[in-house]
Amino acid sequence: MHRPRPAVGLSLAVIVVAGVVSGWGTGLAVADPGAAGTLYVNRDVACSDSGAGTQSMPFCTVQAAADVVEPGQTVRIESSGNSTYSGSVTLTRSGTKDAPITFTGAPLGTGGSWAELGPTGSAPALTLKGVHDVRVESLGVRYSGGDAVSVTGSEGVTLDRLSFRRSLVADSGGRGTAVTVDGASSDVIVSRNWISSGYAYGVRVEPGAARVTATTNVVTTPRQGGIVATGTSGADVTSNTVTAPCATGISLDGGSSGALENNVVVSTGAQQSATCPAPTAPLYAVSADSAGQVTGDYNVAANGIGPSARPRPEYSWADAPYATTAALRDATGQGAHDIDGLNAPSALTAPYEHSPFIDSADADAPGELTTDINGAPRVDDPLVADTGTGTGTTTHPDRGAVERQDTIAVPADDMPSPASGVAPFVTSVRTDDATTSWGKPVTTYSVDFGDGSAPVTAAAGPPITHTYATPGTYAATITVTDIDGSSHSVRPQVVAGTATPPATSLSGAAVTNSHGQVAAGDALFTVPEPANAWEVVGRTLAYGDGTQDNLAGGAQQVEHQYPAPGTYTATLTQTDLLGRTTTAKATFNAADAFLPITPQYDTQKTIPAHGVLKLSAATVKADSDGVDAAQLQIVAGAAKASGSLTLYTDGTTRPGTSTISFEPGRTATNEATVKVTPTGSVDLYNGSSGPVTVNVATIGLQSHTQFGRTYHPATPVRLLDTGAVAGGHSVTLAVSGTHGVPADANAVVLNVAATTTKGSGSLTVSPNGTINSGVTGPYWTTGQSASGQIVLPMIPLTDGKVVLHNSSRSSANLVADLVGWYGPSASGSGFQPVSPVRILNTRTGTGTTGGKIARLGAHATLKLKVTGAHGVPASGVNAVDLNLTVPSPSGSGFLVAYADGTSRPGVHSVDFTAGHAVANRALVKVGTDGEIDLYNAGSTSVDVYADLLGDYDVCPVG
Fold this sequence. Notes:
Layout lengths: L37 E4 L20 H5 L7 E4 L6 E3 L2 E3 L9 E4 L11 E3 L7 E4 L2 E6 L2 E4 L5 E4 L2 E6 L2 E4 L10 E5 L4 E6 L2 E2 L5 E5 L4 E6 L2 E3 L4 E6 L2 E6 L2 E3 L6 E4 L4 E4 L2 E3 L17 E3 L1 H4 L2 E4 L2 E3 L12 E3 L2 E3 L2 H8 L6 E2 L67 E2 L10 E3 L2 E7 L3 E2 L5 E7 L7 E4 L1 E8 L3 E4 L1 E6 L4 E4 L2 E5 L9 E6 L5 E10 L8 E7 L5 E4 L4 E6 L4 E11 L4 E10 L2 E4 L4 E7 L4 E4 L11 E11 L5 E7 L10 E3 L5 E8 L6 E5 L5 E12 L6 E16 L4 E5 L12 E9 L5 E7 L7 E6 L5 E8 L7 E6 L5 E12 L5 E13 L19 E5 L11 E10 L6 E7 L10 E3 L5 E8 L5 E6 L8 E10 L4
Parallel strand pairs: 1-2, 2-5, 3-6, 4-7, 5-8, 6-9, 7-10, 8-11, 9-12, 10-13, 11-14, 12-15, 13-16, 14-17, 15-18, 16-19, 17-20, 18-21, 19-22, 20-23, 21-24, 22-25, 23-26, 24-27, 25-28, 27-30, 32-41
Antiparallel strand pairs: 28-29, 31-34, 33-37, 35-36, 35-39, 38-41, 39-40, 42-43, 43-46, 44-45, 44-47, 47-48, 49-57, 50-57, 51-56, 52-55, 52-57, 53-54, 53-56, 58-65, 59-64, 60-63, 60-65, 61-62, 61-64, 66-73, 67-72, 68-71, 68-73, 69-70, 69-72
């Protein structure tokens, strides 16, 4: 069994880390360097540069600590996560041989992140000026184009385990030096540092310096030179790895003396460029004025083999080039044990198994360490024959900065078990069955449970137990070490959950724009950040329409466009680290918003008896995004026989409903809502035995994707009852801004009527001050009372008044009742179109209490249930869109439709005359019980039909 031999040239504590360290951000375990002699720097907590640098009130800047540090003290630079301390630091205070000054960025315990120094301007990140007995270790240094660390006029300085990271804004051409040692410095050790790409030089020693050791460093892609010592007496360059140099990898010149041993320089065959000026320079160079004072051996010139050999000499010795180690050895006697012609592994990885690098170096080389760049011990590989020298013949280090270690497999059952539970809970780590690739006995297990408790180290065998008392996620570290000191660490996660899973909630609203308009089918769901968010590993929002999204962490607002109007239940499912789930639900009534259109008669056609007029989507202006329904006004005239028209969706079965009733010699009008899906077209069927001429105008659309207006049903109220208005005259009525209708209402819904008519005629209703923007109201004959419900778009910038014009040649009393209004307010109701269906027929008993067949008696009231069937939700309904028909009345009168449970208003919904069928649209507010009332104000009983066209629901969430 082979043991690591003691360190030569430098005494370092063995640091155990997991695997091979990358070039930056590696956690490591370092002994706490001090108690009362420790100064703290931590800008991530409450700090003060005028304080004493205690752990409870640390310095904010590194310079503040550098200005006051005393011999024997340690400056601990702390970081919560690769924190950069910007500001160039200059140290001018010294330690003593027995009480050195130490600067360290290593975290307490194991794991964690190093702190980082970042320069300002062209000054180095760290300058050691005229100091002695100083150690700087375990810090990151950011490169910004200039020198990174400068040692000037100093002695007894050690720079160990620094990580030089290239700045993202650095000049890609490569400038500056990672570590510069000036000619007035001596006894400087540069060890175990990672120097990344971007620098002109990795380590540069200037003329006049003495006793400078560069050992176990990795330098990647240096532009001008990897490790360069010029005019340096006692320059020992040992066990370094330089990869892809764009000039000489390691050189000693200017009369330098010293040793060049155990190094690896790897060529990559780079092409010459502005950033790679000398890719054909030798891998190693010793000048003529230095050759007599330098010994070189046990180095590796990895210049490739066969077709992969690079076009550069491996050596320049005494200024003479040598292509191979054999040529160097034969000519100079140097490099007797050097190796060349290899394709070497990456500088960041250990030599591959059975590599000639392994166990082939000189253990007695000046500056050789007992640990490699990762802090792992120099160990014997039993699978490779030892070919090195020094300290006996059994234990020899590998060449270069990275030592091949025993591969230790930690099985799954050596992980904390259980690895999760509700805090407090006890876990256990087995320590009896890790195996090694070299067959070496495993001697110790060390477990840092990651919760701030002290690590536990025990011999292999008995399990190690621990109680996690506080909820949280913990990165445990299990380090297994074999008898030779090779180690491997695994970092399993342990979850100590809260007693109950984190609660979640979900709410939704329709998307609105800056004008207050609503896209009533476009939901905006709000998902707040849950309590104990650390415990949540996943959230899925299922929208209730067959689609879902996985949500990121934190508070979220998620927009979702529903494919069609309808009631959807969205479900948020949240999963925590223990696999527990919680859910929250929100019901979204994806609906339509109203798009008012200034009415224009788009079509005038004669429909033959029992014929169908097909109106395209373009004709009824329903060919834009997301339109589900159109509101049309239909005028029927020149009929040759009595009958009715039925409006329905093209491509569907014609329903048993009626839209407008007509007869010869009379003109009739009505408004109606019709679904336009799936084709966008609608059909108008003539149910009579004779032809009829129709005029059709679109007064509005309903869309679930476009920004539009919501509906606000009002308790019906009379706005106007004029007495006689002469034929051809008008009356103006204030509507917007009164009776609860806002001034910015986009459309109003009115029941308008003409009574005490002295001749035939019609009524036109228009926004005040407009031309050709009116809606045709009811037509009448002499002596007839006629009414109609109209939706009147209000033209922007008008005064909110409405003009009622008597188009008759004779006088008539004009009546106007407010039913509701549309406006840009999310507090209103969205529309849900349904396929037309007759929900009341007193002739068949449909919709009546108990299915009773009976006319609606004079001065009697009929209650009609309108929710919970035919696609209408059971709750959240504010109004229904109906077509009311009184067929063949035997007397005259009118119906009043209103919300059940409210006082009957004194308004007209449908006026009827003996012997004449009449149909009228009715947007009726719904009672809290889901019912409406129909009151017969006439003196005779009548039959009543009610056809359902859609409903207005709470917008948007029920």
